Automatic annotation (TrEMBL):
<dbReference type="GO" id="GO:0051087">
    <property type="term" value="F:protein-folding chaperone binding"/>
</dbReference>
<dbReference type="InterPro" id="IPR009012">
    <property type="entry name" value="GrpE_head"/>
</dbReference>
<dbReference type="GO" id="GO:0006457">
    <property type="term" value="P:protein folding"/>
</dbReference>
<dbReference type="GO" id="GO:0042803">
    <property type="term" value="F:protein homodimerization activity"/>
</dbReference>
<feature type="compositionally biased region" description="Basic and acidic residues">
    <location>
        <begin position="7"/>
        <end position="30"/>
    </location>
</feature>
<protein>
    <recommendedName>
        <fullName>Protein GrpE</fullName>
    </recommendedName>
</protein>
<dbReference type="GO" id="GO:0000774">
    <property type="term" value="F:adenyl-nucleotide exchange factor activity"/>
</dbReference>
<keyword id="KW-0143">Chaperone</keyword>
<feature type="coiled-coil region">
    <location>
        <begin position="56"/>
        <end position="120"/>
    </location>
</feature>
<dbReference type="Pfam" id="PF01025">
    <property type="entry name" value="GrpE"/>
</dbReference>
<comment type="similarity">
    <text>Belongs to the GrpE family.</text>
</comment>
<keyword id="KW-0175">Coiled coil</keyword>
<dbReference type="GO" id="GO:0005829">
    <property type="term" value="C:cytosol"/>
</dbReference>
<dbReference type="InterPro" id="IPR013805">
    <property type="entry name" value="GrpE_CC"/>
</dbReference>
<keyword id="KW-0346">Stress response</keyword>
<dbReference type="GO" id="GO:0051082">
    <property type="term" value="F:unfolded protein binding"/>
</dbReference>
<dbReference type="InterPro" id="IPR000740">
    <property type="entry name" value="GrpE"/>
</dbReference>
Length: 212
């Protein structure tokens, strides 16, 4: 009986020792895990804190971006101002365009009256003098407002300002020369209001004998 109790006590002591060893091992594992966690988290914490040099670099980048945005905004504002000034200038230059176009018919009628009148009739001659003065006064008034007449007789043909109504062989002038002005043209501040209607010379075709 005494041996049985002694064996039981011995077994209990061994179990207690094993339990203590197990607790010790658990504590060591937990402590090691915590230490490893602290060690692994430490570099991340250090990375999150920027060095003074990195902070300065970040501020310089932000300043450069702000400067670029300001310059871009300034450039856009200047472009808008220039476009507005140009629009205002064009509006001022060409405000008379429609009015001037209406006056061209009056100038044409005066031109036709002078060209078709019987200049040998003495009574008509007196009237023609008045018509000629009126026509000249109108042209001069138009010129004061930069509405200039195009009368390209004898000049090289310019498709920008002339409209060729026909081409005729003419050995007396260079090819592509205006030989007749059927209707004068006009420009307003160098912008075409109406092209001059003209006849243009072309080279004389060689005769059959010359071809042989």
């Amino acid at each position: 009986m005494e041996n049985t109790v002694s064996d039981q006590e011995k077994t209990n002591v061994e179990n207690d020792q094993q339990a203590e060893h197990s607790l010790t091992d658990i504590h060591e594992v937990v402590d090691g895990t915590v230490e490893d966690s602290e060690v692994s988290e430490s570099p991340e914490s250090e990375d999150q804190i920027l060095s003074p040099e990195a902070q300065i670099e970040a501020l310089e980048d932000e300043l450069a971006k702000t400067r670029d945005d300001a310059l871009r905004t300034l450039a856009e504002a200047q472009n808008i101002r220039r476009r507005s000034e140009k629009d205002i200038e064009n509006a001022r230059k060409f405000a008379l365009e429609k009015f001037a176009s209406e006056l061209l018919g009056v100038a044409d009628n005066l031109e036709r009256a002078l060209d078709s009148a019987d200049k040998d009739n003495e009574v008509v001659k007196v009237l023609l003098e008045g018509v000629a003065l009126t026509q000249k006064s109108l042209v001069d008034t138009l010129a004061k407002f930069n509405i200039m007449q195009l009368d390209p007789l004898g000049e090289p043909f310019d498709p920008q300002f002339h409209q060729a109504m026909s081409m005729v062989e003419n050995p007396d002038v260079e090819p592509n020369t205006v030989t007749l002005v059927m209707q004068k043209g006009y420009v307003l501040n160098e912008r075409l209001l109406r092209p001059a209607m003209v006849m243009v010379s072309k080279a004389v075709a060689p005769s059959i004998d010359e071809q042989v």
